[in-house]
Amino acid sequence: MPEPTGVIHDIGYQRYTGPRLGRRHVFGALYLHGLRTAFGLGRTAKAKIFPWLVVGIVTVTAAALTAVRTQIGQVLLTYAQFADAMSWLVIFFVAVVAPELVSRDLRSGVLPLYFSRPLPRGDYALAKLAALVTALWLLLGGPQLVMFLGAAFTTKTGMRGVWNELLDLLPGLLYAGLWAVVFASVGLLVASLTGKRAFAAGGIVAVFLMTTPIVGTLSIMPSRTVNELAGLASPSTLVQGVGAWALRDWLLTGEQSAGVSVGRFGPVYAAAALLLVAGSIVLLLARYRKVATR
């Protein structure tokens, strides 16, 4: 009989015998990776340029406002008004970061690797959404903290002044959170529709900016009711409308938003924002239930 010619080589593969951390830890790792991706951490220097340029702009703006307030003793922009003023930067930040979080995975075909682990498709989408919400909240809330520290250290009324400033800061941080949730949910939904980052970025900018002329048209109509409801036509003015109502009537603070005039329709704006966020999340989850992984 001929002798066998095949040879078995032991190349050192071993079974994994360590702890299996499970779904919660996978979700946390994906969230942390998404948050790092949003700011270009752990990536090339080129990937860090835009996010940190935006961070630098909003931080320098906050520092300048604080310095002017210290010199002239007058508040140029409140915390909520600062978030309104920086909203255009938030739009472009979402347009760049959201495709990095989801479009790249769609195009490169790595989703089968994600879903082969104890990670449901819904968890993948929610982890990416949570990372983008956190990044946007830090983008707006960090400079607000700079403004607060500058005001707290220069107050002339001691701890009472610091306390009053803190009471102004907290609604501002909540308002920044509203911007983050609305923009992240809408932006990530649009980005999840295509694997091409350029198309995703263009779609996000279009959704946020091309709806603004509709608001402008409705706001000059002869009907006052139409004017007060005009802000519902755009995500940006929708957020500003919720802020104008909540900061004035619900939170009962001296903080003011530079948003649209909502009249008696504040609750309508709040309900519309809630429906927009909920609808975007539902559609996002539905999108990933139908994503092909083969």
Could you explain how this protein is built, in words?
With 294 residues, the protein is mainly alpha-helical. The protein has one domain (23-289). It has helices at residues 23-38, 45-72, 79-85, 87-108, 111-115, 121-154, 158-191, 197-209, 212-219, 224-229, 235-250, 266-289. α2 (45-72) packs parallel to α6, α3 packs parallel to α7 and α6 (121-154) crosses α12 (266-289).
Question: What keyword list fits this structure?
Answer:
294 residues; 72% helix; mainly alpha
Class computed from helices, strands and strand pairing = mainly alpha
Strand content: under 5%
Q: Quickly count the helices.
A: 12
Radius of gyration: 24 Å
Oligomerization status of the protein chains: single chain
Overall average residue pLDDT: 85
The number of distinct β-strands equals 0
- Give the ordered list of helices and strands: HHHHHHHHHHHH
Q: How is the main sheet built?
A: none
What is the approximate shape? globular
Secondary structure layout:
Elements: H1 23-38, H2 45-72, H3 79-85, H4 87-108, H5 111-115, H6 121-154, H7 158-191, H8 197-209, H9 212-219, H10 224-229, H11 235-250, H12 266-289
Helix pairs in contact: 1-6, 2-4, 2-6, 3-7, 4-6, 4-7, 4-8, 6-7, 6-12, 7-8, 7-11, 7-12, 11-12
Short synopsis of the structure:
The protein is an all-alpha fold and 294 residues long. Helix content is 72%, strand content 0%.
